[in-house]
Description:
Elements: E1 2-4, H1 10-25, E2 42-52, E3 63-73, E4 76-85, E5 91-97, H2 101-116, E6 122-130, E7 135-141, E8 147-150, E9 164-165, H3 166-175
Parallel strand pairs: 1-6, 2-6
Antiparallel strand pairs: 2-3, 3-4, 4-5, 6-7, 7-8, 8-9
Amino acid sequence: MTLQSPQPPDESREAAEAGLQLLAGLGRVRTATLLPAAPEDLRLVDPVQMYTVAPTGALTDARPVSWRYLVRHGDEPVALAETVRDASGAHVFGQLNYGPFVAGTAAALAAAGDAGGDRPGDAEVRLLHVPAVHLIAVWLHADSADTLVPAAPAPSGIEAGRPYPAAQLLSLVAEFTPPTLTADDDRGGG
Length: 190
């Protein structure tokens, strides 16, 4: 399987670079991985468009919400930079993440590359975010079948770095769905 990585709009990349340089240059990022890095030594790699979906949703319901970039210092992934669209539709810097999903996303991207293997056809590399259950997965979107590779930390019962057929992983995710509360629910609150 040949993996296709769509390139982000120039405006997105420029916004991510500007936000990263501003935060790093101002010394606003104080983590063990970013402190030793001069702003000019940080580079954006592996841009991936991120989609979001509800835990009971199908991939056809997933909507693009941002572009994510791995930030590397040398060979080490040290952060994730994200751009989103503002109300006018322009790409703007959204956040710099330097939590556990940094290494997890880097590892899931590597595992997804291995998962492509010798299968025929092409697949587009995407990220899928299911906020309600704190899941991020690399999404290999193909005409024949979709594959999801969860990033660490993954919810209990889901193996990070393991390629899952999309339907199987989404079925597991649906089991973690919190109950929907209704207006007449009297189990708590006020």
